[in-house]
Specification:
Blueprint (H helix, E strand, L loop, with lengths): L2 E5 L5 H10 E5 L5 H10 L5 E4 L6 H4 L7 E4 L9 H6 L3 E3 L6 H16 L2 H9 L21 E4 L3 H14 L3 E4 L5 H7 L2 E2 L2 H7 L2 E4 L13 H6 L5 E4 L8 H9 L5 E4 L19 E3 L8 H19 L10
Parallel strand pairs: 1-2, 1-3, 3-4, 4-5, 6-7, 6-9, 7-8, 9-10, 10-11, 11-12
Bound molecules: nicotinamide-adenine-dinucleotide and (2R)-2,3-dihydroxypropanoic acid.
The site of nicotinamide-adenine-dinucleotide (NAD) has 30 residues, from helix 5 and helix 7.
GO molecular function: glyoxylate reductase (NADPH) activity; hydroxypyruvate reductase (NADH) activity; hydroxypyruvate reductase (NADPH) activity; NAD binding
Family: Belongs to the D-isomer specific 2-hydroxyacid dehydrogenase family. GhrB subfamily.
Catalytic activity: (R)-glycerate + NAD(+) = 3-hydroxypyruvate + NADH + H(+); glycolate + NADP(+) = glyoxylate + NADPH + H(+); (R)-glycerate + NADP(+) = 3-hydroxypyruvate + NADPH + H(+)
Length: 319
């Protein structure tokens, strides 16, 4: 008998066909109020779930007594109650690796955009404000040769270090759970305590997961250690940062600029002060959002789900 899978994310035709060949699929196209109702109605029959961007807590999981596997179309798993999934012996999987390079590209796009004021100045050109040769008031700051600070030296951190070291001649310093000698050898990188990194780096980039240990890690004290010429980049998770403290640091000139792909609450509130700051580049959580990478992530999630439902060990188990 075919098992029942609930999708809360649309898949490409080939992936949909693969999944439908082996399972009964219920597709919930949007997670709006109506979609959530459909999800609640489908959960009692579900053996497998596949999607992203849904807080899957015990309350929802309790509606799914037959659930065997959850395949997240993301590498980050902060949306899942992992302890409860494990207690229920439900296999959680994620999609590490396939999005690493694309997400590091996004990080570098934010580094370039903030340092060279790309968005702010492009808006001025569009608004007809470029009426004479530009002066220092429109100058940016160099990226090449500046110190790249990476907090969380995992897959994406390494891909960022590679771009900085080989592409832009940047000295790399990093802070992580533990020193990484192989990374140090490859990128001539140096380990720093968190506080030393915050004081020393020209670009401070977050590439660590949201966990109980990292929530609010970068708060007022951390921003106070940064320098007025520092640029802060977050491609990890919004809740690793105290957003109010970051806004204050930007308003008070404690840091030069911020490039932000992730926020405490997403979508970002249209009234956020961040949207009225010329020195902030805000993107809508596009870290992995290219056609190729999103397809690779979805394929990885389908592979993981089918393996788990077949009683095999999936390639990317989280628990
Ligand atoms: N913006 C996006 O769209 C996007 C895309 C992909 C990933 N992400 C985020 O990036 C995170 C990292 O992804 P990855 O594939 O590089 O993961 P990874 O596990 O390979 O790397 C994370 C690194 O952070 C380190 N770390 C964990 N806790 C730490 C702590 N308390 N202090 C210091 N270092 C700590 C780990 O040791 C590891 O080296 C994901 O968990 C996800 O939240 C965001
Ligand atoms: O964790 C991830 O994979 C990205 O944030 C996309 O959701």
């Amino acid at each position: 008998m075919k098992k029942h899978v609930v999708l809360y994310k649309e898949l490409s035709e080939p992936l949909m066909q693969r999944l439908e060949a082996q399972t009964h699929v219920t597709l919930i196209k949007r997670l709006d109020a109506q979609g959530l109702e459909q999800l609640r109605a489908a959960l009692p029959h579900a053996h497998g779930l596949l999607g992203a961007s849904l807080k899957l807590d015990a309350r929802l999981l309790d509606l799914a007594p037959k659930l065997e596997a959850v395949a997240s179309v993301s590498v980050g798993v902060d949306n899942y109650d992992i302890d409860y999934l494990s207690k229920r012996k439900i296999q959680l999987t994620n999609t590490p690796g396939v999005l690493t390079e694309t997400t590091a590209d996004t990080g570098f796009a934010l580094i370039m955009a903030t340092a060279r004021r790309v968005v702010e100045l492009a808006i001025k050109v569009r608004n007809g404000q470029w009426q004479k040769n530009i002066g220092p008031e429109w100058f940016g700051t160099d990226v090449h040769g500046k110190t790249l600070g990476i907090i969380g030296m995992g897959r994406i951190g390494e891909a960022l270090a590679q771009r900085g070291h080989f592409g832009f001649g940047m000295p790399v310093i990093y802070h992580s759970n533990s020193p990484k000698p192989a990374v140090e050898a490859r990128f001539n990188a140096q380990y720093r305590s968190l506080n030393d990194l915050l004081q020393e780096a020209d670009f401070i980039c977050l590439t660590l997961p949201l966990t109980a240990q990292t929530e609010g890690l970068i708060g007022a004290q951390a921003f106070a250690l940064m320098r007025p010429e520092s640029i802060f980049i977050n491609i990890a998770r919004g809740k690793v940062v105290d957003e109010a403290a970051m806004i204050q640091a930007l308003q008070q000139g404690q840091i030069r600029a911020a490039g932000l792909d992730v926020f405490e609450r997403e979508p970002l509130d249209a009234n956020s002060p961040l949207l009225h700051m010329d020195n902030v580049v805000a993107t809508p959580h596009i870290g992995s959002a290219t056609v190729e990478t999103r397809e690779a992530m979805a394929r990885c999630a389908v592979d993981n789900l089918l393996a788990a439902l077949a009683g095999e060990r999936p390639a990317n188990p989280v628990n």
